[in-house]
């Protein structure tokens, strides 16, 4: 299996996709019970930057995000785009995801 074809994050080994209906049922039940802890950044400057970035990515699309990531790679203010396990990155992805769901009419609550 190629290194890029991993199905999940494990301890050095990829998680295999469900092979049977029973495994698929257990996997979907695990996903339903899973939670992600989202913490709003306490630094007001970072929070404003993340919220502004989300606004532009929602409006302009993923190519805008890629362009900013390429241009601001060395800028510590944009570290939340690259540090995938940081609380700021998790907040950024959650905020982006939730606003995109609202836009599609899947969620009736608008996150402030």
What does this structure look like?
With 112 residues, the chain is mainly α. The protein has a domain at 50-103: Orthogonal Bundle (Arc Repressor Mutant, subunit A), CATH 1.10.10. It is built from four helices and no strands. The longest helix has 17 residues, at 44-60. The radius of gyration is 17 Å and the shape is elongated. The N and C termini lie far apart (42 Å). The model is unreliable at 1-9 (pLDDT under 50).
Ordered list of secondary-structure elements with their pairings:
Elements: H1 21-33, H2 44-60, H3 62-71, H4 87-103
Helix pairs in contact: 2-3, 2-4
Features:
112 residues; mainly alpha; Arc Repressor Mutant, subunit A; 4 helices; elongated
Strand runs, count: 0
Helix content: 40-55%
Q: How far apart, in Å, are the first and last alpha carbons?
A: 42 Å
Count of DSSP helices?
4
CATH structural fold name of the domain at 50-103: Arc Repressor Mutant, subunit A
Q: Major beta sheet, specifics?
A: none
Oligomeric category: single chain
Q: What would you say the CATH architecture of the domain at 50-103 is?
A: Orthogonal Bundle
Shape: elongated
Which structural class matches the secondary elements?
A: mainly alpha
Secondary-structure element series: HHHH
Classified in CATH, the superfamily of the domain at 50-103 is Surp module
Structure, briefly:
The protein is mostly helical and 112 residues long. The protein has helices spanning 21-33, 44-60, 62-71, 87-103. Mean pLDDT is 83; it is low at 1-9.
């Amino acid at each position: 299996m190629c290194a890029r074809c991993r199905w999940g994050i494990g301890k050095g080994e990829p998680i295999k996709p469900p092979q049977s209906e029973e495994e698929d049922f257990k996997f979907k039940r695990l996903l339903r019970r899973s939670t992600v802890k989202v913490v709003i950044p306490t630094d007001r400057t970072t929070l404003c930057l993340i919220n502004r970035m989300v606004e532009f990515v929602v409006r302009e699309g993923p190519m805008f995000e890629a362009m900013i990531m390429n241009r601001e790679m060395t800028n510590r203010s944009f570290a939340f785009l690259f540090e995938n396990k940081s609380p700021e990155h998790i907040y950024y992805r959650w905020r982006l995801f939730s606003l995109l769901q609202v836009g599609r009419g899947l969620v009736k609550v608008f996150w402030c």
